[in-house]
Structure formats: C-alpha cells, structure tokens
Design brief:
This protein has helices at 42-49, 72-82, 98-108, 113-126, 142-154, 172-189, 200-203, and strands at residues 2-13, 16-27, 31-35, 57-62, 65-66, 83-86, 160-164, 192-196, 208-213, 216-223. The chain has 224 residues and is an alpha/beta fold. The chain has a single domain (2-212), classed as Rossmann fold (3-Layer(aba) Sandwich), CATH 3.40.50.300. Strands 6-7-8-3-9-10 form a six-stranded mixed beta sheet, sandwiched between helices. A hairpin with a 2-residue loop joins strand 9 (208-213) and strand 10. Helix 3 (98-108) packs parallel to helix 5 (142-154). The longest helix has 18 residues, at 172-189. The mean pLDDT is 93. It binds adenosine-5'-diphosphate (2 copies). Keywords: ATP-binding, Nucleotide-binding, Transport. InterPro entries: AAA+_ATPase, ABC_transporter-like_ATP-bd, ABC_transpr_LolD-like, MacB-like_ATP-bd, P-loop_NTPase.
Amino acid sequence: MSLLVAQDLHKSFGRTRALEGAGLTIRAGEIVAVMGPSGSGKSTLLHCLAGILPPDSGTVTYRDRELTTMSDSARSELRRTEFGFVFQFGQLVPELTCLENVALPLRLSGVKRRDAERAAREWMARLEVDAVADQRPGETSGGQGQRVAVARALVTGPKVVFADEPTGALDSLNGERVMHLLTTAARETGAAVVLVTHEPRVAAYSDREVVVRDGRSRDVEFVR
Ligand code: ADP
Ligand code: ADP
C-alpha cells in the first residue's frame, strides 16, 4: 500500500533550485534510504514529504490526503499524530530530563503525565537508554541522546518516521547501534522510515535506496 506519495516537486530558495521534479513513493512499513551527494536536495525532499516545508509546485499525498492544500493546523495535527522525527542533533529540549523529552509528544496530545511517562519508560528501555531517564540531554553521550530522540519519535506510534542524517554526529559504532535499534523498533511497530543519509553503511539498514541528484530523485532505485 502506498502511504506517502510525492510527485513532481519543485522548490527554490532564491535562485537555488533545490528540487526540480523530485518524486518518491513510500509504502507502509518500508525503510527507504534517500542517498545522494551533499546539496542534491535530500533534506529539502524530506521536509516537503513531512509537511514541514511547502513545495513551490507538485503534490505530497499521505493516505489520499493532499498535504500541500491542507490548512496549517490540519497539517500540524497530521504531523503530530502520524509522523515521527529524528534529526542529526539539537532536537531534544535541554531543560527537560530525557524521560520528559520522550513523554513530551504524548503530553502535547493530552495524555496524562503518569501514562505518558510510563509509555516513555517502555520506549527508553527498548532503545536501551533507560539509565539516562533522569538526566538532561546535555549530560548524555551523543549516542544516548540520539537513542532518546528515536524513543521520542516512536512513542506516539507514528506511521512514518523521518530521519535526517540521524547518525551524522556519531562514530560508526554508535551510529550502527542507533540504526539497529531504530530499524528493529520500526519493523516491530510497522512504521515506515524515510532515512536521509550519505553513508552507505547507514543506508544498508534500508529495504530500498533512492538517489537524489540535482534536485531530482532518479528512478535509480536499489532494491535489496
Ligand atoms: P555515479 O554512479 O554517477 O558515480 P555515485 O555512485 O557517486 O554516482 O552515486 C551518487 C550517490 O549515490 C553517492 O552519494 C553514493 O553514495 C550513492 N550511491 C550510489 N550507488 C549506491 C549504492 N549501491 N549503495 C549505496 N549508495 C549508493
Ligand atoms: P542535501 O540534503 O542533499 O545536502 P539540501 O536539500 O539541504 O541538500 O539543499 C539543496 C540545495 O538547496 C542546496 O544548494 C542548499 O544550499 C539549498 N538550500 C537548502 N535549504 C535552504 C534554505 N533554507 N535557504 C537557502 N538555500 C537552501
């Protein structure tokens, strides 16, 4: 089943044409690596797919709902309930403990503190970061911080997790651990993953690779 379909996306920043006719289909539960050289448009494509950035033209459809014509509030609601996000760094709230960070998306959806924190603890255990539950993000290692971020992305039960260079700031051992735990958890919950990376070792965790070049995601797809 096609979950998320982007067609003929164009996006410019001033005179820079970041996307020039990019398209991508994500099926339920699949893990797709978006590869390509630096500056080719990978992050821009991910942001358009996730409804964070409006394309200049083209369509993004999530389960028959057109993201580009939705109201801002409908789009935020969809992001909050259906999508999860993991970025390279800086996405945890420094003033909150790691547990509070993981519980935050549930709290924002109106879940009671006790229930939110119970679910957060379970997810932290799955990501092997229960030991840092009461620490602040600044007190953890980079690898622990990214695993906390993955727990936070998954705690709401998203259908799609967007991960933009999630291992970009980690050494290869910690990177592999993050990828292993992220993809295992995604497979267990049936979440699809859209993974932007330039590292073949990270892309190796995907089911399928798509290459973006000069703002176009080529039909060059490596299917494992
Ligand atoms: P070309 O084939 O034109 O030399 P590249 O092989 O450099 O192009 O591919 C462009 C981008 O796609 C690079 O970032 C590269 O890492 C990635 N890429 C291409 N083929 C693969 C592959 N089989 N596995 C992983 N990454 C790939
Ligand atoms: P990638 O993720 O493949 O490295 P990006 O999608 O980040 O590529 O960027 C594609 C092109 O768009 C680059 O030339 C980049 O400099 C430009 N770009 C991306 N975001 C912005 C922005 N907010 N403002 C101006 N230029 C941008």
